[in-house]
């Protein structure tokens, strides 16, 4: 036999990892688990089984949580929270560091247990899940240490309810628990029902690490228990899982004052250009879609190949698929393990068998006859609108289509309701870096894929959810400002009778697409001065006007591509023109409000224009040094079109204070002006008209905010809604936003001081972070 023949026939031998210690640990625990509440394991209750998906064997029984369990856990977390926060960042850092060390010490046990419970290859659990979980605790130990000096204005939110999925059980636990604890919060976490064992082992090490009682609580069970956690007396809900459940949670928490972050599904494009290193790009796909059996929210599940190389690429890909080794997850030479549960297997099979489009190729590799295994599958020649190009399969099934030009690649890539991640494969750095900003995604990988790190925020846009986990930005989801805030007071409009004092009837208009526009309703309302004199009429905007404003804002998308320098110039120019009319505005404000604060309010508006003009070219991103070859560039991008319900009490400063940060960062805005005092806004549109603000960048509506709030929240082409208005509208905004899972920012009844607004908070609300991973250095 020649050497080349040996190479031809040589196969990997099996390299099984022993399950003995993990199984012994389960037996040690009695084979059945209760919850982890207030530092103790509770007695096991109503049981449900957790199985090894590779064999179908029962591993242990877990307890289905009850309302009483969730209440007890929340109570314990509430009791423990003040002391945990008061202990200070450095004290918390020690505990987080101890957790990281213990995870490291027991990493083999964690990895085997994870592989048994979830079905993922031991190689992945050992080399990715567990080390990444450790890294999260190390990284956030550092964040706890730095909190007093770097985040002096931040404090904990309180108790966090966290619901996690089954695809990265321990890693998702780490992503949730590490930042929460670092910032002084306590947690009640519900692991996924299929995969709770590593959470139980984590509970076991919490005591050893010195985590005080009640700081970490873990309640097991199904979605019903998740619902209980979401509706419990918690200050924040953090969820990772399906978009459908995320949407339900958005609705359930609307108007509750609870902070919310959602990390949801994806259908991430994997774009291969004709100048790519084809073999690397094929190998990349193994990590993109066959990593964790494709059960990855950011999986590169939608292959887009440049037409000239499509045939070659698919041929090489099929050949590579045939070499994938599917089998026992505990075998160290396995590439693809078991699907988490037969139910998920059924979902994948049903989606694939319902498909009649394209050409399906199933890898020619051996599949175990028993257990929840699904063969690596490729479906080529799909059209962008085909179901499988749009729906998340969450299994080892890759769908593929081709493109002709870079522009077409971008348009197909963005043609989905999701926006989590994207991969670009090209040897041309100019091309890759030209495409990266055009992709609607929270993460872009260039010539690599599925890379994650605690230092680089992870999260998406559109229906992939909102909020980031990891990095500095991830911390804002677990903190609030220490600055005291007053409560918003309801303000009634002035009333009066009779004609205007100068006999001239003034009917203001809406400001849409750079033009004064009549309201679609055809109605206007009288606006009275404090002394009962008629000041004018304000148009009553309705849903149709919101739609027109959205259209105008979308037509002005070029604004997002302008430079910070240019936007600063325009903001300064608005300030200059407002200053020239300062007296007139001050008088108008005093007339409407019947006070003497008009001049001060105009000054506050001018100041905010100057402040955000100053920031327009300075609120830069970061470059993260990640422990993988390359760097992650955290770019701050505009959110898109933002609807804002402006403050009633500060008709000018509140309007300008919302507009300026939004447009400074490249967004277009639709402002719903102060309902009781709308005329400062209609006057302000004249200032905009003379200040070189391109048509559609700022749109101003007057009239009742209720209808406008609902229309904005439900509009599919508005990317975020801010509410500084009536606190009753918080619920309307948050519930309506479930439509396209847009970002919302409500004040929960707290008033903003428009003379000294929290500029950095505004800027972070006005931007979306996109982490672009690029090869760099050796
Ligand atoms: P799921 O979203 O139902 O489960 C995730 C977690 O949410 C689990 O802990 C579950 O118990 C909990 N949960 C379920 N219903 C809940 C509710 N009403 N309120 C609060 N918590 C609730 O995901 P599932 O059904 O296991 O998987 C279905 C599909 O979801 C998958 O095929 C995949 O497309 C997607 N998925 C996405 C994940 C991601 O990381 N983006 C992770 C898991 C699933």
From TrEMBL:
<feature type="domain" description="Aldehyde dehydrogenase">
    <location>
        <begin position="46"/>
        <end position="482"/>
    </location>
</feature>
<comment type="similarity">
    <text>Belongs to the aldehyde dehydrogenase family.</text>
</comment>
<dbReference type="InterPro" id="IPR016163">
    <property type="entry name" value="Ald_DH_C"/>
</dbReference>
<protein>
    <submittedName>
        <fullName>Aldehyde dehydrogenase</fullName>
    </submittedName>
</protein>
<dbReference type="InterPro" id="IPR015590">
    <property type="entry name" value="Aldehyde_DH_dom"/>
</dbReference>
<dbReference type="InterPro" id="IPR016161">
    <property type="entry name" value="Ald_DH/histidinol_DH"/>
</dbReference>
<dbReference type="Pfam" id="PF00171">
    <property type="entry name" value="Aldedh"/>
</dbReference>
<dbReference type="InterPro" id="IPR016162">
    <property type="entry name" value="Ald_DH_N"/>
</dbReference>
<keyword id="KW-0560">Oxidoreductase</keyword>
<dbReference type="GO" id="GO:0016620">
    <property type="term" value="F:oxidoreductase activity, acting on the aldehyde or oxo group of donors, NAD or NADP as acceptor"/>
</dbReference>
<dbReference type="InterPro" id="IPR011408">
    <property type="entry name" value="Aldehyde_DH"/>
</dbReference>
<feature type="domain" description="Aldehyde dehydrogenase">
    <location>
        <begin position="531"/>
        <end position="747"/>
    </location>
</feature>
<feature type="active site">
    <location>
        <position position="263"/>
    </location>
</feature>
<dbReference type="InterPro" id="IPR029510">
    <property type="entry name" value="Ald_DH_CS_GLU"/>
</dbReference>
């Amino acid at each position: 036999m020649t050497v080349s023949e040996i190479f031809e026939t040589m196969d990997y031998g099996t390299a099984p990892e022993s399950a003995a210690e993990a199984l012994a640990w389960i037996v040690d625990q009695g084979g059945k688990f209760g919850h982890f509440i207030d530092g103790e394991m509770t007695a096991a209750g109503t049981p449900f089984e957790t199985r090894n998906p590779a064999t179908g064997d029962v591993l242990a029984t877990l307890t289905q949580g009850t309302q009483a369990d969730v209440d007890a856990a929340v109570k314990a977390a509430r009791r423990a929270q003040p002391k945990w926060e008061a202990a200070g960042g450095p004290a918390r850092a020690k505990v987080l560091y101890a957790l990281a060390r213990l995870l490291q010490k027991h990493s083999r046990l964690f990895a085997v247990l994870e592989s048994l419970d979830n079905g993922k290859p031991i190689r992945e659990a050992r080399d990715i899940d567990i080390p990444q979980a450790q890294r999260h605790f190390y990284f956030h130990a550092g964040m706890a240490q730095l909190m007093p000096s770097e985040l002096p204005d931040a404090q904990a939110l309180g108790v966090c309810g966290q619901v996690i999925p089954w695809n990265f059980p321990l890693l998702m636990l780490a992503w949730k628990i590490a930042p929460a604890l670092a910032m002084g919060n306590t947690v009640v976490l519900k692991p996924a029902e299929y995969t709770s064992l590593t959470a139980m082992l984590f509970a076991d090490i919490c005591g050893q690490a010195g985590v005080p009682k009640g700081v970490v609580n873990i309640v097991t069970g199904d979605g019903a228990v998740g619902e209980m956690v979401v509706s419990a007396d918690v200050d924040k809900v953090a969820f990772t899982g399906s978009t459908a459940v995320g949407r339900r949670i958005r609705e359930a928490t609307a108007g509750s004052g609870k902070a919310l972050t959602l990390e949801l599904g994806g259908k991430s494009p994997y774009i291969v250009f004709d100048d790519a290193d084809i073999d690397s790009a094929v190998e990349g796909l193994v990590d993109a879609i066959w990593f964790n059996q494709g059960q990855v929210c950011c999986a590169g599940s939608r292959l887009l190949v440049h037409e000239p190389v499509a045939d070659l690429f698919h041929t090489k890909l099929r050949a590579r698929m045939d070499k994938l080794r599917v089998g026992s997850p505990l075998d160290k030479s396995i590439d693809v393990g078991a699907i988490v549960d037969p139910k998920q297997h059924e979902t994948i099979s049903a989606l694939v068998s319902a498909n009649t489009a394209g050409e399906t190729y199933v890898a020619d590799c051996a599949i175990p006859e028993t257990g929840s295994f699904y063969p690596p599958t490729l479906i080529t020649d799909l059209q962008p609108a085909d179901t499988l190009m749009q729906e998340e399969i969450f299994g080892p099934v890759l769908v593929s289509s081709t493109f002709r030009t870079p522009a077409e690649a971008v348009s197909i890539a963005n043609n989905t309701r999701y926006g989590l991640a994207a991969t670009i494969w090209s040897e041309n750095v100019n091309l890759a870096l030209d495409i990266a900003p055009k992709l609607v995604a929270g993460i872009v990988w260039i010539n690599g894929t599925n890379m994650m790190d605690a230092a680089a925020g992870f999260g998406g846009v559109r229906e992939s959810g909102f909020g980031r986990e990891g990095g500095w930005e991830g911390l804002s989801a677990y903190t609030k400002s220490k600055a005291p805030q007053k409560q918003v007071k309801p303000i009634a409009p002035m009333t009066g009778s009779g004609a205007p004092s100068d006999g001239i009837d003034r009917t203001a208009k809406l400001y849409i697409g750079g033009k004064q526009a009549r309201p679609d309703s055809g109605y206007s309302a009288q606006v009275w001065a404090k002394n009962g004199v008629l000041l004018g009429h304000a148009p009553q905007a309705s849903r149709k006007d919101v739609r027109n404003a959205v259209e105008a804002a979308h037509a002005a998308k070029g604004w997002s591509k302008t430079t910070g320098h240019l936007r600063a110039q325009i903001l300064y120019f608005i300030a200059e023109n407002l200053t020239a009319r300062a007296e007139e505005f001050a008088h108008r404000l005093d007339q409407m409000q019947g006070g003497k604060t008009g001049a001060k309010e105009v000054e506050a508006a001018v100041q905010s224009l100057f402040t955000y003009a100053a920031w327009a070219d300075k609120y830069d991103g970061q470059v993260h040094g990640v422990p993988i070859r390359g760097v992650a560039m955290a770019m701050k991008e505009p959110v898109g079109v933002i609807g804002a319900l402006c403050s009633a009490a500060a008709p000018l400063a509140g309007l300008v204070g919302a507009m300026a940060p939004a447009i400074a960062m490249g967004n277009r805005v639709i402002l719903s002006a102060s309902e009781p005092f709308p005329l400062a806004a209609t006057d302000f549109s004249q200032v905009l008209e003379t200040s070189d603000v391109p048509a559609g960048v700022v749109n101003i509506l007057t009239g009742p905010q209720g209808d406008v709030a609902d229309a904005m929240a439900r509009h599919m082409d508005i990317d975020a809604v801010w509410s500084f208005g009536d606190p009753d509208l918080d619920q309307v905004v948050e519930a309506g936003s479930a439509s396209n899972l847009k970002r919302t920012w409500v004040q929960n009844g707290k008033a903003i001081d428009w003379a000294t607004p929290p500029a950095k908070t505004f800027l972070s609300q006005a931007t979306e972070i996109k982490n672009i991973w690029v090869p760099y250095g050796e």
